[in-house]
Amino acid sequence: MTKRLLEHGLRSALLALLMAAACAAADPRETPLVQAIRRAKACVVNIHSEKTSHDADSLFAGGKGRKVNGMGTGIVVDERGYIVTNHHVVDGVDSLRVTLVDGGTYDARVVSFDRAHDLAIIRIQASRPLEIMPLGTSSDLMLGETVIAVGNAYGYEHTVTAGIVSALGRDVEVNEKQAYKNLIQTDASINPGNSGGPLVNLKGEVVGINVAIRAGAQRIGFAIPIDDARKTIAELISAEQLGQAWHGLAARDVKTPTAQRLVVDRAEPDSPAARAGLVAGDVVLRAGNVPVVDGVDLERALLGVKPGQEVPLQVRRGDATRDLKLTLGRLPNRNGAPSPVETVVARANNDAPAAAESGASQRAWNVLGVRLRAIPPAQRSLVGPKYHGGMQVVEVRGDSSAAQNGIRTGDVLVGLHLWETTSENDLSYVLDHPELGTFDPLKFYILRGSETLYGHLRVAAKP
Question: What is the pLDDT, as a whole number, of residue 17?
């Protein structure tokens, strides 16, 4: 009898616990929307920027210009402080400040960008590992599906709006310089400051990156599908882009409603990937300590790994799992022949080799990582009527800040900080300036084709 009473009491207690848990789970306020926002918001950061606005005709006139404040949103893609946002959020800025969900604020710098796809990577030196985006897929989005936008709307940090997927596959032309393909259209309110922030599904997974609104319209906003964005992000944080390291692996993201994986297409001949034993059809499961879903995960695992260092890989080949070791190599020089522009400049300068090794150019090589030649008067058409002249980039050092910030052979350097760079005397003035250290990072202006591009260079210690 006593035993039966004890068993009955235990069953009653267990039933009471289960009923309490069920009641708690059935809290009508704990909707899927609330749970999704709670999951996603930790990876969202608010971005505040400052840039100097100059009159178009006096970009390097020496005046201080007018300070303009900007705002945007970012999503953490790596716990070490790498954040993705839109390129237009950080384009031409003098300074960036990032605020985390816990209120912590940090200075940020632009690491890399892709103007065509309007994405950029910035980085902060966080005091702790950050939470990264809960990754979803845009491959199975449904018309009418509930989505949530999180962002720095009009400067109101971590603002949340909700709506539905209004359309898929939209092509949108913003202006003559910026057009987008295959966007998600949503009626979740997207305002100035939301750019670069996540579009989230009811699982709390990021399915898009908010990018644009339709001027004059109500509740018509657009986002880059996350599957498209992740391909660009992988390039922006790649070992080649940020570490001048090489693996030689060509792989593709496979994103379906039921599976997301990174599949090897090929390993370049005699590359680190080939020597590691990777072959077409392998599915990469893990790199180092990072579980691999797509190319971003693989490149994250290689961040900070230097040429000669080894990274363990786990792959699935057929029905078997294999452990491999990938040893990164140095990025090979793929620019054996000079560019057409470089050839023209060299032909116009009979003393080009001596000029390349002159004092100012050598200091630019040591301090900035670029070798420059002044554009001769006969080639002034390279800079057009807007500038008084410039200096041709004829070589970029692989491990330099210039390489990491996207400067290429053939670009024309037209300005540093507030000054034009039309000659070696201009270059010397900037590099020998007593306050050079206070310009770090040093703002640069380059001409590429008909576009003036902006960015920042870390100033290396002078030799």
Answer: 61
- Gyration radius of the chain's alpha carbons: 26
Contact 205, 237 (CB under 8 A): no
- Cα–Cα distance, 443 to 93 (Å, whole number): 9
Place of tokens 């539905």: 164
Choose, from 112, 166, 189, 195, the residue flagged as catalytic: 195
Cα separation values, 130 from 105, 127, 150, Å: 13, 9, 17
Bridge partners for 225 per DSSP? 208
Rounded-to-integer distance, Cα 333 and Cα 338, Å: 12
Active-site annotation holds for 118: yes
Which tokens go with 248?
């030689």
- Of the candidates 54, 48, 50, 49, the one whose C-alpha atom is nearest the C-alpha of residue 66 is 54
Q: For 355-368, how does the pLDDT look when each residue is reduced to its tens digit (9 = 90+)?
A: 334 577 788 888 88
Q: What is the pLDDT of residues 83-105, one digit of tens each?
A: 999 999 998 788 899 999 999 99
Q: Report pLDDT digits (tens) over 7-26.
A: 555 566 666 665 655 555 56
Q: How far apart are CA 414 and CA 374, in angstroms?
A: 10
pLDDT of residue 207: 97
pLDDT number for residue 389: 79
CA–CA gap between residue 431 and residue 462 (Å, rounded): 9
Q: Which of 49, 91, 112, 118 is catalytic?
A: 118
Contacts of 32 (CB under 8 A, 6+ apart): 202
- Check pLDDT > 90 for residue 316: yes
Of 92, 336, 89, residue with least CA distance to 210? 89
Q: Which residues contact 220 (CB under 8 A, 6 or more apart)?
A: 166, 185, 187, 213, 214
Per-residue tokens: 264: 């090897």
Instruction: Give percent of the chain with pLDDT exceeding 70.
Output: 82
Distance CA 249, CA 335 (A): 20
Catalytic residue among 88, 117, 158, 456: 88
Q: Is 195 a catalytic residue?
A: yes
Q: Is the pTM of this model over 0.90?
A: no
